[in-house]
Amino acid sequence: MTEGASHSRRLAASLVVSWLLFSSAAVVIVIAAPAPPATVAASRVAITALAWAFIARLRGSGLGLAGLDGRTRWRIWISGALLGAHFSLWILSLTLTSVAHGAVLVGLQTLFAGLFGLALGDRVSWRLVAGVAVALLGTAILTGSDAGTATLLGDGLAVLAGACSAAYLVVNRGVGHALPLPVLLAWVNAVAALTIAGWILLSAGEIWVPDAGTAEVLAILWLGLGPGLLGHGSMNWAARSLPVHVVSLTVLLEPAGAAALAWLALGQPFGWEEVVGAALLLVGAGVSASDQGRGAPPDERSA
């Protein structure tokens, strides 16, 4: 096997691993209840940050940012805050809506990434326009199947979580090669944890509840080390060699895996409206994402 073929196989394997781990996240978040959503979010990214810091030290990398210019440092802080907002909103959304809805709607991040890129001066293509139209139709059908105010609120929070994730990727443009990957991910996740912890303190929110026990703790550990460390690590490693629109396929395929796991593990059903709406939304997001990253240089790919 040639070196190129071996590298291609490793890239494909990393995307499959990312998809499987990401698909488990929504179900495990539901299992982590009744632990407070903000605590679950803060703990998850804190565990991921510590794990990446440990890996960075094992590889002999320093954790300091002294060699970076001020603009790059600000990007790291802002992207970490956006990542914290993404996880806070998404984990909260899954206490108010189903796994299928939450996983599908947060996948709108690929569409938001295109819109944010447009705002920053990227060219407009027919794929983006058509993708937005189809995704909006799918979103209307999907959320129209909701029965109550709580579920609609959860759907809205999932959409906002997707927007924050897209903004995180946009802010990270150009940062991906400024630091070794473990160091960058350690810092971004640490800033995310501090952001969420600050929100908990300012809002005087619950830190823990008596009903939460071993199962909830294990679920949080899995979120930090599974999707957080291995999932995001595999995706970010692949993003250094592949265009954004290829890597984003793991995000687009995540809802299918999450919905299947929710049906098997939690018994959460989904009707024809949800299937049709989700399919249209994902097709729209996929069409939009298909033109993102074409020909982009390495420093403009997701970090």
Helicity range: over 70%
Biggest sheet: strands, sense, closure? none
Give the uncertain stretches in residue-range form.
293-303
Query: For the terminal residues, how far apart are their CA atoms?
Result: 29 Å
Q: Which class of secondary structure composition applies to the elements?
A: mainly alpha
How many structural domains? 1
Number of helices: 12
User: How large is the radius of gyration?
Assistant: 19 Å
Number of DSSP E strands: 0
Give the mean pLDDT: 80
Which percent range describes the beta-strand content?
A: under 5%
Choose one word for the global shape: globular
Q: What string, H for helix and E for strand, traces the elements in order?
A: HHHHHHHHHHHH
Task: Explain what this protein looks like in three dimensions.
- This protein is mostly helical and 303 residues long.
- It has one domain.
- The chain is built from twelve helices and no strands.
- The radius of gyration is 19 Å and the shape is globular.
The gist of it:
By secondary structure, this protein is an all-alpha fold. The chain has helices at 3-32, 37-58, 70-93, 99-106, 109-119, 126-144, 149-171, 181-203, 214-239, 244-247, 249-265, 272-289.
